[in-house]
Amino acid sequence: VNELKFIYEGKAKKLFEYENNVLIYYKDDVTAFNGEKKDNLIGKGKINKKISVFMFELMEKNNVKTHFIKDIDETTFLAKKVEIMPLEVIVRNYTAGSFCKRYGIEKGKKLKMPLVEFSLKNDDLGDPMISDDAIIALDICSKKDLEHIKNEALKINNILNNYFKQFDILLVDFKVEFGKNNNEILLADEISPDTCRFWDKNTMESLDKDVYREGKGDLVDTYTALIRRINL
Ligand code: C5P
């Protein structure tokens, strides 16, 4: 990896330039609460890379354009270079997490319709929620691009819901990020149990990063059980 040009290091991934593309390396690091809680969990990077690759391939099969190009090895895949939009796009099907806190409601209620929310990606500000109009007024993206992103997020929600349903897993909510490559908007970043909430349909038990956030058990064991359950 030494001769590759390092581009960026995030909380869970490292990016290197490769020809005109990027190699995305999944670290074993895990963080929560905006980096306040952190650990290195051996084997986590490998599992999340595997799930992400599978999910990007699933999206491509269902006509969602992504940055994914090809799988490289146990911890790395190749992706198109994108300019990430500074937005976290969150889709919720059931109440959980910050949504419950914000509105003072109990968790686990099915929402009347899938809900798309946006947060501004800014660690110093703690990723504040941002309205559609504020996104456009601040010229973070155009109205047309925002509509597109919203539609894609809902499409991704349908694809994921359908996929996880067969394993009796509820998709509670998830976060995705989009980026631009040659003016084309692509699904980027990752889709993994770090960025989604999955619950067992019958027991409502968490199969995702909430296990780490809430100290409910061993995260690598949880993720290993999840990939077995979904036949990966
Ligand atoms: O914390 P909150 O309830 O807003 O999270 C909603 C969803 O977005 C969860 O699935 C969580 O894992 C994901 N998320 C994320 N990265 C963040 C914030 C939330 O992946 N920075």
From TrEMBL:
It comes from the Bacteria. It catalyses: 5-amino-1-(5-phospho-D-ribosyl)imidazole-4-carboxylate + L-aspartate + ATP = (2S)-2-[5-amino-1-(5-phospho-beta-D-ribosyl)imidazole-4-carboxamido]succinate + ADP + phosphate + 2 H(+). Pfam families: SAICAR_synt. GO terms for molecular function: ATP binding; phosphoribosylaminoimidazolesuccinocarboxamide synthase activity. Its EC number is 6.3.2.6. InterPro entries: SAICAR_synt/ADE2_N, SAICAR_synt_PurC, SAICAR_synth, SAICAR_synthetase. Belongs to the SAICAR synthetase family. This is Phosphoribosylaminoimidazole-succinocarboxamide synthase. Signal peptide: none annotated.
